[in-house]
């Protein structure tokens, strides 16, 4: 069961970091990444026994950092469509 929970954590963290770059400015990417990370972290925390609050804090911090450090040039935001 622990291996399954670990796999879930890894896959959700990967998805969180992949979605952390939603936004046009570093500030908006940090906000959206933090929100996505907090939601994902709460789910992971509840699934692994850490608790939703602890998971949300950790996930929010990781998502905000991931969103802030992404470059708008590295992400196709659909400009010009």
What descriptive keywords fit this protein?
81 residues, 0% strand, 3 helices, mainly alpha
Describe the structure.
With 81 residues, this protein is mostly helical. Helix content is 73%, strand content 0%. It is built from 3 helices and no strands. The protein has helices at residues 2-19, 26-48, 52-69. Helix 1 (2-19) runs antiparallel to helix 2, helix 1 (2-19) packs parallel to helix 3 (52-69) and helix 2 runs antiparallel to helix 3 (52-69). The termini are far apart. 31% of the residues are buried.
Radius of gyration: 13 Å
Total count of helical runs of at least 4 residues: 3
Q: What is the molecular shape?
A: elongated
Main sheet summary: none
Report low-confidence residues grouped into runs of 5 or more.
none
Mean pLDDT: 75
Number of strands: 0
Quick description:
This protein is mainly α and 81 residues long.
Secondary structure elements and their pairing?
Layout: H1 2-19, H2 26-48, H3 52-69
Helix pairs in contact: 1-2, 1-3, 2-3
């Amino acid at each position: 069961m622990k291996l399954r929970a670990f796999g879930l954590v890894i896959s959700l963290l990967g998805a969180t970091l992949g979605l952390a770059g939603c936004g046009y400015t570093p500030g908006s990417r940090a906000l959206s990444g933090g929100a996505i990370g907090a939601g994902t972290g709460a789910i992971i925390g509840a699934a692994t026994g850490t608790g939703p609050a602890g998971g949300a804090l950790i996930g929010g911090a990781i998502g905000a950092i991931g969103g802030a450090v992404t470059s708008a040039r590295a992400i196709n935001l659909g400009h010009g469509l």
